[in-house]
């Protein structure tokens, strides 16, 4: 981990193209909802954004700044635990038995020893664990 960045990774037992599609097209299956969020809320990528949509409207989680299937997504992050200027990069790389999915959460001034870095790492780690709980991957 470098200063200004939290990195979380997992190996998914899918080829790169399928891992990317599962991460993007099926994100609602494993994404963590905020407590007390309406049960009809759906998380999805739509029109260059990641949103949590319900009958009450849509919450912007991120604006996609780079979409390079099946290897990379870069987003201006405004979702959980966000601070102005946050960026999140998701990388998909082939690995024996599947695909390594890496989440890089970048924030100016973030240091590895900061409590905030631990919170971000645990939050993203939980997301990747939920992806794993779908029976799609093994933890690395």
CATH homologous superfamily name of the domain at 5-26 and 64-138? START domain
Tell me the overall shape: globular
Main beta sheet: strand number and arrangement? 8 strands, antiparallel
Measured distance between first and last alpha carbons: 16 Å
Strand content: 35-45%
From the coordinates shown, what is the CATH architecture of the domain at 5-26 and 64-138? 2-Layer Sandwich
Rg, please?
15 Å
Number of extended strands: 8
Helix content: 10-25%
Mean pLDDT: 88
The chain-level structural class is: alpha+beta
Question: In CATH's first tier, which class of the domain at 5-26 and 64-138 applies?
Answer: Alpha Beta
- Quaternary organisation: single chain
Indicate the low-confidence ranges by residue numbers.
none
**Succession of helices and strands:** EHEEEEEEHE
Arrangement of strands in the largest sheet: 2-3-4-5-6-7-1-8
Q: What name does the CATH topology of the domain at 5-26 and 64-138 carry? A: Alpha-D-Glucose-1,6-Bisphosphate, Chain A, domain 4
Number of distinct helices: 2
Keywords:
Alpha-D-Glucose-1,6-Bisphosphate, Chain A, domain 4; 140 residues; alpha+beta; globular; eight-stranded antiparallel β-sheet; 2 helices; 8 strands; 41% strand
């Amino acid at each position: 981990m470098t200063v200004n960045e939290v990195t979380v990774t997992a190996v998914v037992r899918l080829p790169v193209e399928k891992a990317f599609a599962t991460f993007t097209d099926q994100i609602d299956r494993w994404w963590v909802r905020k407590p007390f969020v309406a049960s009809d809320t759906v998380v999805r990528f739509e029109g260059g954004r990641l949103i949590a949509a319900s009958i009450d409207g849509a919450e912007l989680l991120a604006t996609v700044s780079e979409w390079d299937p099946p290897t990379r997504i870069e987003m201006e992050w405004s979702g959980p635990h966000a601070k102005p200027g946050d960026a999140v990069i998701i990388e998909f790389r082939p690995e024996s038995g599947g695909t390594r999915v890496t989440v890089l959460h970048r924030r100016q001034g973030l240091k590895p020893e900061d409590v905030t870095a631990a919170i971000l790492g645990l939050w993203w780690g939980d997301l990747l664990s939920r992806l794993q709980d779908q029976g799609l991957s093994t933890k690395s």
